[in-house]
Design a protein that fits this description.
Layout lengths: L3 E12 L6 E12 L3 E5 L6 H8 L7 E6 L2 E2 L5 H9 L1 E4 L11 H9 L8 H11 L15 H13 L5 E5 L7 H18 L2 E6 L10 E6 L2 E3 L6
Parallel strand pairs: 3-8, 3-9, 6-7, 7-8
Antiparallel strand pairs: 1-2, 1-4, 4-5, 9-10
The protein binds adenosine-5'-diphosphate and magnesium ion.
Adenosine-5'-diphosphate binds next to α1.
Length: 228
């Protein structure tokens, strides 16, 4: 529960060029430790997804420093960025499940990034079981409810045993009870495996699961207010 696994310092980001250029993140600095669950809350448009995509090496940095585990992202080559992504479990806002594949196959697909895992089928099944989907190994995404789809997405993020999970609005489109169950699952993982979980959301119903809550407003961290 001590070493920071995510560190960023003076992180800023702008979209667009020339007169269309618009800054959306302003000098963000924070560190997140192993085993910690940190929620970044903030209204739509405050920069949450942009922040996650920078930390996950899905988008190139412009200014500021980011360290993910032992990797430094500023100045990182494409190969280094790939190496960083392999160490992160992503839960996206849209589930991005492959509709033509079963739940099990979706997980096995993700495990192709982890050739060191020798028994992918067994690991996929064990992970689905851990999120309560033992009955659904052979079902396709369109056969799931919204909550089940999100659980498959979470299982897929977890299947490679990541030290970091980045989750973008994982409870969007879920009812309160299901959303809470999903987030508690991530909380359990953080406790058991020392995984750092960084979750961005505007869903105030799940804030109690966090060790720490950061509030993003117009691209800046502000002192916590409870009204978003
Ligand atoms: P959030 O996830 O908190 O809703 P985003 O990080 O998606 O916020 O967006 C922050 C701001 O950046 C918004 O004003 C949004 O319109 C803008 N933005 C996001 N993505 C792009 C993009 N690809 N091109 C231009 N502007 C963008
Ligand atoms: Mg977003």
């Amino acid at each position: 529960m001590s070493a920071p696994v995510i560190r960023f310092n003076d992180l800023s980001y702008s979209y667009g060029e020339g007169v269309l250029r618009r800054q959306v993140l302003f000098g963000l600095t924070e560190r997140i430790n192993a085993g910690e669950v940190v929620i970044v809350k903030g209204p739509s448009g405050s920069g949450k997804t942009t922040l996650l995509s920078l930390l996950g090496a899905l988008r190139g940095l412009q200014t500021g420093q980011v360290n993910i585990l032992d990797h430094r992202l500023d100045g990182a080559s494409k190969d280094e960025q790939l190496a960083v992504r392999r160490e992160i479990g992503f839960v996206f806002q849209l589930h991005n499940l492959i509709e033509a594949l079963t739940a099990t196959q979706n997980l096995i697909m993700a495990l192709r990034l982890h050739p060191e895992i020798e028994n992918p089928l067994e690991v996929a099944h064990r992970t689905l079981e851990a999120v309560g989907l033992k009955h659904a190994f052979e079902l396709h995404p369109q056969q799931f409810s919204g909550g089940e789809r999100q659980r498959v997405a979470i299982a897929r993020a977890l299947v490679g045993g990541p030290k970091i999970v980045l989750a973008d609005e994982p409870t969007a489109s879920l009812d309160g009870v299901t959303g809470h169950t999903i987030v508690k699952m991530l909380r359990g993982l953080a406790n058991e495996q020392g995984t750092a979980v960084l979750l961005v959301t505007h869903d105030v119903r799940i804030l109690d699961v966090a060790d720490r809550i950061l509030t993003l407003q117009d691209g800046r961290f502000v002192e916590g207010s409870d009204d978003v």
